Amino acid sequence: MTFSNVRREIAGISISELANQFGTPLYVYDAATILARVEELRQFDAIRFAQKACSNISILKLLRKAGVVVDAVSAGEIHRALKAGFTTTGEPAPVQYCADIFDRQALQMVVDLNIPVNCGSPDMIDQLGEVAPGRNITLRINPGFGHGHSQKTNTGGEQSKHGIWHEDLADCMQRAERHGLKITGLHMHIGSGTDFEHLAQVCKAMENTALKVGSSIQTISAGGGLPTPYRSSDNRIDIDCYFKLWDEVRQRLQETFQHPVSLEIEPGRYLSAEAGFLISEIRAIKTMGSNTFYLLDAGFNNLARPILYGAYHPMSIMPRDGNENRPLQEVIVGGPLCESGDIFTQEEGGFVCRRQLPAAQIGDYLIIECAGAYGSVMGSNYNSKPLAGEVLIRDGKASLIRRTQTLDEILAQEVLI
Fold first, then answer.
1. Catalytic one of 54, 172, 203, 338
2. Cβ(185)–Cβ(219) under 8 Å?
């Protein structure tokens, strides 16, 4: 991958034009990039988008029209999917509930709408079985190990809350049988950024688990976690190799069970991360001892990944005066919040680091790139800051898909007594 530290446009539209029309901070998504990532995964029988990564209903509609189905981790995400035009019937299931618990609202909704459930805890089997016996379910299994680009994105092993512990499979099969629930699918996902060595272990664990459950298995899910390049030194994952590992498992299971087994993949970040850009304006430049700070009108209330995971995002400058031949300098990039952790250039553990960027002026735009996953969806009103607007660019046209929140809207749910 190659990232430049100067950028003038996104998907053919000038950054200054976008900022002038819609304001900053502003999320901008390139539809063509999202659709290109979808095409890379067409070998799989079903592409199930983990909508928690980027859940704007216009993005969901774009994916629905491209033949992608979705998972939902809450009642709110089921509601979003329906608003985006997904139905509750079809094969593969257009919407699947995939979580580690049922809150009361979510349980009622999956029962009323007959939403398929991927159970991530043994208690979910009992809770669903008591009110909706006789249904088909899938199980998310924690194989006992995990991997990820950050400990906080590691979703396997005994320190992870996710999935059903692999040693509890027999108990879960008994629970399902008591309620007349049929286990028709299995799901495994051990973390974001998984490499092929760990993937091979997951594939083997999936095969062994499926054989224990038996021929009722009709679907296996490879989960998500496909690596996304954030640095120029990052290589793009070999999708053909990724598919081949999983397809070999599927083929062996089909031979054993003597019926077709569907192979799903559940990408989130992979589909949307590279498509997203957070445009911000540099509002202050100051020197603190040996450090130079660029302070933006965007903060971790808009993009929390750096403060949560120490996540690295490529950054670029759009000079307002058009001069792109500015010298590079080492800077720290931070936001406007009254919080010491409001720094975009930090490593995991909160260690502040510097980034080489062009010398900037007040009013220049700084673009945080690869921000289309776990960006806007994690936005907050910390410091009473409005949620940022969102724009989708498709076929050369920029369309507002969420307007910037107003100050009154921040207070809309509060009650003065």
1. 338
2. yes
